[in-house]
Fold these 2 entries.
Entry 1:
Amino acid sequence: MQEITGLELSPKKVEYLKFLLKKGDLVKTTDISTELNVDPSTSTKTINDLSESGYVDHIPYRGVRLTEIGREFAEFFVNRHNILSLMLSHYGLSSDDACIEVSRFEAFVSKDAIDTICGAMGHPTVSVCGKIKHSSCNLH
Amino acid sequence: MQEITGLELSPKKVEYLKFLLKKGDLVKTTDISTELNVDPSTSTKTINDLSESGYVDHIPYRGVRLTEIGREFAEFFVNRHNILSLMLSHYGLSSDDACIEVSRFEAFVSKDAIDTICGAMGHPTVSVCGKIKHSSCNLH
DNA sequence: TAATAATTTGGAATATATGCAAATAATTTG
DNA sequence: CAAATTATTTGCATATATTCCAAATTATTA
């Protein structure tokens, strides 16, 4: 198990990990660049950063996959996104607006806060953006 | 009246404006550097940025004050902080934790979202961090 | 006015993110 | 299978945000 604070990665890198989790297995850096609307050279560079930090394995010219640690983080990131989106939807934001809004700030919300919020909500399993798992929720 | 999206300024610059509003009138760049724990040269530079963008007037060696536009923004920033803190406190975060958490991400929450949240809350006038005004709330 | 304190300027560094052009590797095709 | 094409990476180069240190400048105090 990893100690996750939730503040380890920049917003963009969080996006990368979430996308890698969604795609699963070996992902081309070009797929990432298409999805995130950046130049292929940019996604390669960012992936190299993530690789050096241990979140992904990168086989040059072949593809990228999450490490075990990377997967743990990615799962937390997806949950965080979903919990925050659900929270905002409780305050009148549409699913789309909640999702867009959360995407902008989610990287700056700590795991402790998410665990607390998740607990206060009664550990919901469905959000407006997708399903919520609780394997990483310390208060479950 | 200004069109405020809420996403105009970086986190640090938001802090600067909120501090200037709290201190009021002419504020020394050194006071800012003390409050925000940065070198005086850093606060001078940031203040110069804010000055070029029209948020503050800076009289070198004398002090800084908010422009009318800067004040509008600063008031929105304080309200945004308070509304978001109140929201998190509804999900089990202590006042302090809510405040700390919000400080990290508030700069990335849009005014539209804040107006919606504020409306869903019934336009509260008191938060865990301070009072809330509604002069700038479009849904009030 | 001279010494001291406050403030600003100039230079430099880090982190994050980006794209273009050239080089390299993989894949397709004839 | 070799040549052509496509995909991917590397090497610059740039931009923004933030920071600090040392030197220069201005204000204040003694």
Note: Chain B has a mean pLDDT of 93.
Entry 2:
Amino acid sequence: MIEARHLRVLRAVATTGSFSAAGRELGCTQPAVSQQMKALEASVGTPLLVRAGREMRLTQAGEALVRHASGILAGLTAAEEEVAAIAGLRAGRVRLVSFPSGSSTLVPTALAALRAAHPGTRVSLEEAEPPRSVELLREGDCDLALAFRYEGAAVAEDWDDLVVRPLLADRLVALVPERHRLARAESVAIGELAQEPWIAGCPRCRGQLVQVCEGAGFTPRIDFATDDYPAVVGLVGAGLGVAVLPQLAVESVRPRGARVVRLEPEVRRQIVALTLPDLAQVPTVAATLEQLARAARGVGRS
Amino acid sequence: MIEARHLRVLRAVATTGSFSAAGRELGCTQPAVSQQMKALEASVGTPLLVRAGREMRLTQAGEALVRHASGILAGLTAAEEEVAAIAGLRAGRVRLVSFPSGSSTLVPTALAALRAAHPGTRVSLEEAEPPRSVELLREGDCDLALAFRYEGAAVAEDWDDLVVRPLLADRLVALVPERHRLARAESVAIGELAQEPWIAGCPRCRGQLVQVCEGAGFTPRIDFATDDYPAVVGLVGAGLGVAVLPQLAVESVRPRGARVVRLEPEVRRQIVALTLPDLAQVPTVAATLEQLARAARGVGRS
DNA sequence: GCCGCCCCCAAGAAGCGCTTATGCTCGATC
DNA sequence: GATCGAGCATAAGCGCTTCTTGGGGGCGGC
């Protein structure tokens, strides 16, 4: 087996014409060069260099090897370059999955910052929510998943084998029509909305809503359900019912005809980034994760 | 510095999908594979493989490396192939230099045998005699030189740094016109030809002739000098003088009108092959040398 | 004739790579 | 739900490789 290191040395010897000069060029001693050349000759089974007086000449086999060396070493260098570009965030792609419309502020901010910091990187964005997003992660179809979990949820997801990075604690707020009796209230307890018609969000949020309401002693009467947050806001604004939404979801929607009222006691969902332990070491993934965390801090502060 | 060995292992891991299988394919243990992959990841500074549950997936950097690997490894294999062909005498060239017309039997026999044994090898043949041929050797313009030296010559060549392989001891014979008084003699002493007109060979042979004659107490009267042996024979055959020639040179010429008489005391020249110590290790050179020696044994036997 | 350059050789020390042995995780099976 | 098999990680031990240092010899230039 010819080693690339040997080819590098052979080429240096061929160009400089001496072992000593090659050693200087490669940053090692002359005996090291001499030994490597001996090893290479032994491994190919034929002399490669002829010591004729002072000068060092290549044999035909040596010439053949040097001829191939440039291509091989160029290939190695190209490979190193490409990998270094990925490692150095000058290239590389991240496949990001986020829950639908949940990341309307976080993701754009993070991706904008990522692009500004590392213009060579590319991000693909898809929408899915757990458990689908976790499945995508585990099957290798994405690198990073944005998800959320409700604090104190009934069934905890099995994320034990994943890297779970909390990004943001997002509190729930009540949304009531602006003519509603509680529209001007400082805050509202969920029980006070027991008799209202409800407009629910996505299936998972709906489950959480039911759980919270049952904790307060009633079962909500759900008239509408949609996972489209602007639609929920619109329905509330039209006076068709009340809703409970994550604050982050409300923030990106203009609440026409609806009012946001703080919910007491506080119910929060935690927005997290999920990835595989190994993927967390991949530079592009780590950088994206970092920008998501930074974006989350920005949202939390505002 | 990426090592080719690592690429080979990475490729095996990528194709087999597991470290254990790669180890089996490569004939080493699983920890060896594991360690090499760790070393490779460390050397490029980014993960290359993602351990997701049971299966082993490539990261983007890993894919890039595998993509380059095939080309690099193919280059290495091609280089090994080419060198192995030279080492295995399936290819390769020898640049042979021989003294003019001195090798009319030796060289053709040897080269024919070489070609028969190793059809892929190529031999280039040039004519020169020492010191020119030695110069060509030292300057790297030829690989193997056929030369000769007279035993007991006045000036010994400085062949100390060369490989000198004696091939043949070639005795000198006298050539006299067939009507000459000595034409039927069993043998002739050089002194008996003191009064004859001489036909001399090449410059070096002429020098040797003069030296031998002076050793016998006379200076030959040289009427003609040519390094063309058939011409010498022709001149003698035409009765224009006598000559002393190497037996080998006479053998390849039909002695029309001339007779060969053994010379006493015996004067011999030694035909040798010369090469550089390092070049003697080159398979093609060694093989050619061997065939020359074998051809010489054949000539000596006949 | 001396000096400098360059190569080879030998010995010692450091580093590297492989193997064996062991523990752990995961997935399939009963 | 427990067991079993497969596969990876880790650690220890060993041998090999490879480097450096130091010394010797040869060749060319001043």
Note: Residues 28-29, 31-32, 35-36, 39, 53-54 of chain A lie near DNA strand D (CB under 10 Å from a C1').
